[in-house]
């Protein structure tokens, strides 16, 4: 894990609490960062590379967002265990990422088994060590229909784990502000808060241009299309997901 200070200390205030952002490089976590900042938190980014196929692009986007949000610190964790365990098209080079099916309630092949528990555990360690008061994660309702570790019950249970597994003097809130929101709701809020969506990445298949046809691209494009807004990143294809 590497730690980088990204801003002048004068930008930060000792009077403001710090929130750890699980910064994937995507639009959901970037919007979560904007919400945390809007609530008065200083930000610390935790970005993880675990063998996902687009990890280079995701890292670059997370770094660009860190600069835009003037975060206090940027932590980059490289871990191979999720990739070595396998079970996901995101990490297995021999397994192709499936095409989008926005109507399906089945767990997609891109599900990384129990990933959020792993990431939140790292974020909790970081938050407790640094005295941070909250951890923000960008999971939303269209995630938990297919990803079991994005459901509200998971975050409620993990809050109990944090409360029971940290020092008595530690008080860390697990914040999933979009857990009942749609992707469209997130995009609308992000546009309101000025999220630099040109510095975000969602595609599961490619590091550029985005494919436009995987689940992540489909939900993202659909959100912008529903709002009548142009998604600023480059796509190989831009299907119309509103009329489908």
Written description of the protein model:
The protein has 244 residues and is an alpha/beta fold. It has one domain: 3-Layer(aba) Sandwich (Rossmann fold), CATH 3.40.50.620. It is built from 8 helices and 6 strands. The protein has helices at residues 27-38, 55-69, 81-85, 115-130, 141-144, 152-165, 183-193, 215-227; strands spanning 2-5, 18-22, 42-49, 73-78, 134-136, 173-175. Strands 1-4-3-2-5-6 form a 6-stranded mixed β-sheet, sandwiched between helices. Helix 2 (55-69) links the parallel strand 3 and strand 4 (73-78). Helix 1 (27-38) packs across helix 7 (183-193) and helix 7 crosses helix 8 (215-227). The longest helix has 16 residues, at 115-130. The chain starts with a strand and ends in a 17-residue tail after the last helix. The model is unreliable at 5-11 (pLDDT under 50).
Order of helices and strands: EEHEHEHHEHHEHH
User: Could you please say which CATH topology applies here?
Assistant: Rossmann fold
Structural class: alpha/beta
**Mean pLDDT score:** 91
Taken as a percent bin, the fraction of beta residues is 5-15%
Q: What would you report as the Rg, rounded to the nearest angstrom?
A: 17 Å
State the CATH superfamily name.
HUPs
Please, what is the oligomeric state? single chain
Shape: globular
What CATH architecture do you see? 3-Layer(aba) Sandwich
What is the straight-line distance between the termini? Answer: 43 Å
Largest sheet report: 6 strands, mixed
Strand order of the largest sheet: 1-4-3-2-5-6
Low-confidence stretches: 5-11
Count of helices? 8
